[in-house]
Amino acid sequence: MPSYSGVWNLTAVMQAVGAGNWPDATAAVGLFAPIGTTGINKIIISTTGNATSFGNILEDNVNKAACASSSRAIWAGGSGSQNIIQFVTFSAGGTATDFGDLLAGNQEFCGLSNAVRGVFAGGAGPVNVIQYITMASAGNATDFGDLLAPNENTPSACASSTRGVIAGGYSSGDRVNVIQYVTIASTGNSTDFGDLLAVTMQMAGASSETRGIFAGGNTGTNTNVIQYITIASVGNATDFGDLITATTKMGAVASSIRAVFAGGEAPSDTNRIQYVTIASTGNATDFGDLTSAKEGVAGCSNSHGGL
């Protein structure tokens, strides 16, 4: 974003609005990282159009987990089993700041949050560890409990303000269809929720307060399936519609109205952004493009279902 001081003239305002950088406390902002090497891309979820540059994460690695409060976007871990937790402020942009460390280096895991806590689950090994942070502070992660079984290859996650839901992944030598949940404000082991439509790893997860959406992933080949659950209940997933193209390893963000999926492998790296209206069912619609094609991105927003 350009640096302006004093009174803004109309030209400067229009430049900022056109780039998606005009300050708006009500805007539903989605962030994806890493794009390119260490880039963070920004979208305004209620609009359509191409992503813009927001800032940078601290290192070049994919397969992170992400979560967010209404003010902070947080990424953790990443390829090479990094243990770094880092954050940016949605209203500011710029380079991420160190937050603390995971319990151990991790990658291929998932993140979810309500307004207070960020929760990370599973990861390469595979591991069954669930851990959490208090997003408004800084510090190392704390043990939360255990998943039903060790789980890696990016299980998918979403949340309401009360529950965090984790779905799919890779366990005991194969993809799994298990959906499980935790109560975010407590600690303890996860509980069985139901089953996905098929055994699937590397899905993208997003939610409103009511409904969780899981999109794409790999069932042995890449899939275009979008499916949903009602977070406050338990039960099996239901078919929602289809992605534009079968895609795995996407990042996802959400507002109370839309779920937006970006990047991934389809089957090569893609820069496509697509979206659905969470309260309905149907196929995804084109949104725009990331600034470059990338798989293994992690997304978070300041307006997701956990807030």
Overall description:
- The protein has one helix at 10-18; strands spanning 29-35, 39-44, 52-56, 65-68, 72-76, 84-89, 94-95, 97-101, 110-113, 117-121, 127-134, 142-151, 156-159, 163-167, 170-171, 174-175, 178-183, 191-195, 204-207, 211-215, 225-230, 238-242, 251-254, 258-262, 272-277, 285-289, 298-301.
- The chain is mostly beta strands.
- The protein has a single domain, classed as Neuraminidase (6 Propeller).
- The strands form 7 sheets. The chain has a 5-stranded mixed sheet with strand order 7-3-2-1-27, with no helix packed on it.
- β17 and β18 (191-195) form a beta hairpin.
- The protein is globular, with a radius of gyration of 18 Å.
- The two termini are 27 Å apart.
